[in-house]
Amino acid sequence: MSGPGRRVPLTGDNPAFRRALIGFVLVVSAIVIVAPLVAIFAQAFSLGVDVFAKTVGDPDTQHAILLTVVTALIVVPVNTVFGLAAAWAITKFDFPGRRFLLVLIEIPFSISPIVAGVAYLFVYGLQGLLGPTLQDAEIKVIFALPGIVLASMFVTAPFVARELIPLMQAQGRDLEEAATSLGAGGWRTFLSVTVPNVRWALLYGVVLCNARVMGEFGAVSIVSGSIRGQTNTLPLHVELLYHDYNTVGAFAAASVLTVVAIVTLVAKLLIERRGAGRSPQAVSPADQPALIKRAA
Amino acid sequence: MRIRLASVVKTFNTFRAVRGVSLDIPSGELVALLGPSGSGKTTILRLVAGLEFVDSGEIYFNEENATDIPVRDRGVGFVFQNYALFPHMTVAENIGFGMKVSAVKRSRAQIQERVRELLGITQLDGLDERFPAQLSGGQRQRVALARALAVDPRVLLLDEPFGALDANVRHDLRRWLRGLHEELGITTLFVTHDQEEALDLADRVVILDKGHIIQDGTPEDVTRRPVSAFAMQFLGDVNKFGAIVTDGIAALEHGVTVAASGVRNGPAEVYVRPADLQWSAEAPGLPAHILRVMSRPGSRRIVARTDSGETVEIDVDQDHPAATGDAGYLRIARATVFAADR
Ligand SMILES: Nc1ncnc2c1ncn2[C@@H]1O[C@H](COP(=O)(O)OP(=O)(O)O)[C@@H](O)[C@H]1O
Ligand SMILES: [Mg+2]
Prior knowledge:
- The structure holds two protein chains of two kinds.
- In chain A, about 75% of the residues lie in helices and about 0% in strands.
- Chain A has helices spanning about 15-45, 50-55, 60-90, 100-110, 115-125, 130-135, 145-155, 160-170, 175-180, 185-215, 220-225, 235-245, 245-275, 290-295.
- The longest helix of chain A is centred in the N-terminal third of the chain and has 34 residues, at about 60-90.
- Chain B is of the alpha+beta class.
- Chain B has helices spanning about 40-50, 70-75, 90-100, 110-120, 135-150, 165-185, 195-200, 220-225, 230-235; strands at about 5-10, 15-25, 30-35, 55-60, 65, 75-80, 155-160, 185-190, 205-210, 210-215, 240-245, 250, 255-260, 265-270, 275-280, 285-295, 300-305, 310-315, 325-330, 335-340.
- The interface between A and B is medium-sized, with 26 and 36 residues.
- Adenosine-5'-diphosphate binds near residues 12, 17, 39 and 40 of chain B.
């Protein structure tokens, strides 16, 4: 960048254009993003804090929150382990089908969640492939927690892996090879060399995965059956309340999800900042002469 | 410890990176693997370390067949080309890592003591709390070396140890590493594509090309008695002239001849180092004219073109009066002759 004195003219660097572009982005953001967010909280509190508290305190809403948290508590750790394992396998080993696996992991991103839900119904539903077997064994997958967990897992499977793979690919295998040549075993290498070097990307993936699990609607709506107080997750509950013409209730529940989203956003920003300044403390000026002297 | 490679072959997919390499490195020797990029140097080093496994052939450590011993248990110290220091660990933690994960249990105090000792050996005192990102290239290189030495390796393997350093640091480190080798006496194999580095540092130089060993000998052997045109060219600048050999005499143009005992009759190539050519204002010799004169510390290099159109380079004394445009004659003081490929 040029100093404050003379500016090198850049392409499109013309004051009118710049103002128009920034104005356009601000207006669109306001209409598309800010307005709905404000509306959620305005509606949620439109009848006062008491009504809001009562709606959120409603047993069905409480159950929906609990179910959502339980789902996240199962899905996020499972997908974190899966993501680590997949990223490790793809980036540190050569095996036939590596590329195929890479594509496979990305499928949930490109497929509509509703399709995933229907697919699960087809496999595990009563009329599905495994339906009769599961029924004989008295295992309930569809319209129960396992179905919700499976659908959520499918939808969020790529989140952790996708954050890790590019980073681990860029880092190569040298560090692991160095650790092994120094006598470290596989686990030791993984825990004390691989994980510390991807920790910010890992955390970032976990946070995004969590946000998506808690917010997932499409796939879960198919497999859960939305039984109030039983298989209703928070996003599904929002829809139910809305269809009941309980606008305040719907928005109150939605505001809980929004808070999750905002917390996620803050966490993401913090992680990005820590991750960017990843090298531990910069060299202090006092150290500088010693460094130069040694190098000379 | 003595290292022996017997007909080692390594193929990646279909690419034959190492094609039957046999090598015997006596205990305590410092050996350079020298060759152009892609000649298989790193692959050989990784095979010795156990970071890759051979397709066929054997690797012996003393009398023990080490071919299938995994890298963890081979007891080698490997210094990677880019050092591969653990970025999230301090210098002291990097050096101590091998001792920490070792099957041989050491107390924290023992590890600290050994780390301090290694910091001293590698002249890194006072840098133990630094992170790798806070070090210069030469310091990183020494941390990598200290880390490899910490596990008391039976063999030290170094991949292009000075490749990433600037010329001055490189020169000093080379001398220092030679001193360290003499002090510790660990059998050491290092890879380089820089002939000067190999000749400077090693007891023995192994010249590689396309996965084959071209020549294996002392620096004196390979420089004075190169076995092929490749070795001749790879070890330094060289001029090439066409000639015809008849009964041990190579005849160039303009009646110039050089001795070529043992070379078969027929077309041949005469190789002459720039320092072995002389520039003279008078005949006899190969007529030529000067294109350019370059000054170097202690000498001058003349770039000249012969009348038959070949460009040659000649090293002369720094006081030599040659100037661009001069015409004169080339005389050959010493030459190496190889029969031309048929
Ligand atoms: N893991 C690998 N997979 C495929 N080809 C490789 C691999 N490692 C090395 N090669 C190939 O083997 C040849 C020799 O490589 P290398 O030993 O690294 O050469 P050098 O160190 O002499 O430059 C190169 O052509 C390189 O492309
Ligand atoms: Mg190499």
